Each structure stands twice: as C-alpha cells, then as structure tokens.
Amino acid sequence: MRAVVQRVTDASVVVDSSVVSSIGNGLLVLLCAVSGDDEKDVEYITRKISSLRVFPDSDGKMNLNINQVGGSILLVSQFTLAGDVRRGNRPEFTTAMRPESATVMINQIVDIFKGNNIKVEQGVFGAHMEVKLTNDGPVTILLDSKKVF
Question: Does the active-site annotation cover 103?
Fold first, then answer.
C-alpha cells in the first residue's frame, strides 16, 4: 500500500463542478492499494498515518500527530501511485489492486480512522476528481507498507 501524505491547512475534492468533501487543518492522504496487500498493510498504513508527528508543538517543532491537533483526514484513492515507468514513459498500472478489492480496503481504513476518533472525508472512488489543497510547510511524506521507500 502506498500513500502520499500532505499536511494541509485545507483541502477539498471536486467532482463534476461540485465539492464532494473538504477539510480544514489536517492531512490529505493520496492512497493506493496494490496487488498482494492484506490486513498487515492496512494496519501499517493506518498506524503510520495516525501516528505521524508532522504538526508543530508550542515550540514550532514537528512533534504532534493528527489526534493531538484535532485535525481531519481527506482520503483520496489514487491508483496512479502504482504507476511504473521503469520500462518507458507511459505508466503501467499492472500492480494496482482491482477496484472491487481496493474499495473494500479503503473502507476498512476509513473505519479504522473513525474508530480512532479521527474525522475522515473521502474522495469518490473511480471518479475523475479535482483535488485542491493548501500544503502547509510544505510537508509531504511518502509511505509504503512494503517499506520500498
């Protein structure tokens, strides 16, 4: 499972000219389930995102997590994170998980965040989305449950 996590002051998803979800202070998470992902990957990603200490404390040091600042998560499924361009310039997405299975995993992740008292908004799975954000810092973290990077 791969994720691009960005600390934001605000973020939103627009589909067909309508805002379908938005958050204020928090994390925009672009998430991709890849073939072979299982419960261990779901657990790793949710634990890492929930625990990331990327918000400033009273001294301005990145030391607080999403719960400690009362922030929200905007979770956007993005299969293109599985894109492989090692053999050319046109990405191959053969490692992306099938949509039916990926939807189940994304919903599990949302449920885990909600169970940890984190407010979560979502994009629209499979839709063409416009993701708008104000990256705070900027702070951007890459996560991979297989620890590729």
Answer: no
